[in-house]
Write a structure and sequence with these properties.
Strand content: 25-35%
Strand order of the largest sheet: 6-5-7-8-9
Helix content: 25-40%
Number of strands: 15
CATH architecture of the largest domain: 3-Layer(aba) Sandwich
CATH superfamily of the largest domain: Cobalamin-binding domain
Shape: globular
CATH topology of the largest domain: Rossmann fold
Number of helices: 11
């Protein structure tokens, strides 16, 4: 059984931490360095956690729980304008990052106005690439109810609606609702605000737990962390200067390299004696060609394809 934890501390003696993670058979899921500070999200065997925690304490760092590690979450507002992109959206995105998730903030091209707001196919396709979505609406009840029914019902991933008033009759449009936030010009620093941030995180964790249970019934052929370890040795990814060049999802990964240039090389990599292209579906991101999505096929899918090949 593996556990996911985060080290938060200095760069001093961090090489000892990476060596220990490798020695116990763990995997580094994400690593961020800012000046002399370092955060490392890792997946390690449960029985070796006390050993890792002792080293983290010895080198002056802290260990925190990260329930959302290994996920990528979209935080969406109606538009990118200052009217719709206030502090709560940024605070929610930052709080989810502290819980281990990779977050992306985005706005719709035509989301403003109760009677004119809309979401097109390209926008829903981009949002559907993520593990979950947090949709932020405003302070007017009738506006929230109209927009939620129009915008959220077209999204196919687990969705949490965050808004000001308590809406009615839109439970079918999303998986969870957190009200009492709404639009505001100030940061969410007060105790009541922080409780709301924690509530949003809890709701996201709950809907992702349901998704994880569904995946456990027919799990991916290989774990995303194993493919991540394989891709880290690929030179174009190793040399990529973009933040988090490999982002893990519950059922795959996002690799931030060109699909057209590197698709063939990625497909021909070997994992458990099979081509990566045979056990994964590799497609370009709907955002642009500079990223690719690697969706891992389930065990039943691979077995079914093997049976078809055997009959041929």
């Amino acid at each position: 059984m593996y556990e996911v934890i985060m080290y938060d501390g200095g760069i001093y003696r961090s090489d000892e931490l990476f060596e220990l993670i490798e020695d116990v058979g763990g995997v580094v899921l994400m690593k961020n360095r800012s000046s002399q500070m370092l955060t490392v999200t890792m997946s390690i065997p449960s029985e070796d956690r006390p050993l890792v925690e002792a080293l983290c304490k010895d080198i002056g760092g802290q260990v925190r729980e990260v329930p959302l590690a290994g996920t990528e979450i979209a935080v969406v507002g109606p538009t990118l304008g200052r009217h719709h992109m206030p502090h709560p959206i940024c605070d929610i995105a930052e709080y989810l990052r502290r819980c281990g998730a990779i977050t992306v903030v985005m706005g719709l091209a035509r989301g403003r106005g109760k009677l004119t707001s809309q979401i097109n196919l390209q926008e829903t396709s981009i949002i559907d690439e993520y593990d979950a979505c947090v949709f932020m609406l405003g302070n007017f009840k009738s506006c929230v109810e109209t927009k939620a029914d129009l915008l959220l019902s077209k999204i196919n991933i687990p969705t949490v609606l965050v808004c000001g008033p308590k809406p009615e009759g839109i439970e079918h449009t999303c998986d969870a609702i957190v009200y009492g936030v709404g639009r505001k010009a100030s940061r969410m620093r007060e105790p009541a605000d922080r409780q709301k941030l924690e509530e949003v995180s809890d709701r996201v964790e709950e809907i992702l737990a349901d998704k994880k249970k569904a995946l456990e019934e027919d799990p991916p052929f290989v774990h995303p962390s194993e493919i991540k370890s394989l891709l880290e040795n690929y030179e174009p990814i190793n040399m990529c200067l973009r933040p988090a060049p490999i982002v893990m999802h519950l059922d795959g990964l996002r690799a931030k390299i060109s699909y057209e240039e590197h698709r063939e090389a990625i497909e021909n990599m070997m994992v458990y004696g099979r081509r990566l292209g045979d056990v994964c579906t590799i497609t370009p991101s709907k955002i642009n060609d500079s990223s690719m999505l690697i969706r891992i096929k389930t065990r039943s899918q691979v077995e079914y394809e093997d049976s078809l090949k055997a009959k041929q």
